[in-house]
Amino acid sequence: AQLSTFYSENPTLHTIWDYTGADLSALTAERISHLASFLKDTSHSRAGGRAALVFSMTQLIDISDRLPHLAELEIEQATIKIFDGLEKAHAWITG
After folding, report:
1. 38 CB contacts (<8 Å, ≥6 apart)?
2. In the structure, what pLDDT confidence band is assigned to residue 92 with cuts at 50, 70 and 90?
3. Which partner for 59 in 3, 29, 55, 72 could form a disulfide, CB atoms 3.0-4.6 Å apart?
4. Residue 69: which of 82, 58, 57, 56 has the closest Cα?
């Protein structure tokens, strides 16, 4: 729902999505594939943009079996990277 809202208007070119406080128990491989498809369909509105996805190390360990599916989030017109801290994400976005 948040992605739909974000892309329905005029999205910023660079974004940081902080999931460190999120419950990721419902983040299945199927949902990740659905998100990847959505992002590919809407990526034209953020050509050249960067999106940082931030998770805690504990979350990354918990979802390690789904990390290969997160690679599907890669899109041609924008760059998406995963980070284990906001400082690293912010440095990449602004660097």
Report:
1. 3, 4
2. very high
3. 55
4. 82
* % of the chain at pLDDT higher than 90: 25
Q: Which residue stretches of 1-95 are H helix?
A: 2-8, 29-42, 57-62, 67-70, 86-94
CB hemisphere CA count around 7 (13 angstroms): 17
Strands 14-18 and 78-83: unpaired
Alpha helices (H) in 13-72, listed in sequence order: 29-42, 57-62, 67-70
The span from the CA of 55 to the CA of 63, in Å, is: 10
Q: In this structure, are residues 82 and 53 in contact, taking their beta carbons and an 8 Å threshold?
A: yes
pLDDT of 81: 86
Could you give the CA distance from residue 1 to residue 69 in angstroms, rounded to a whole number? 20
Rounded CA-CA distance 85/27 in Å is: 19
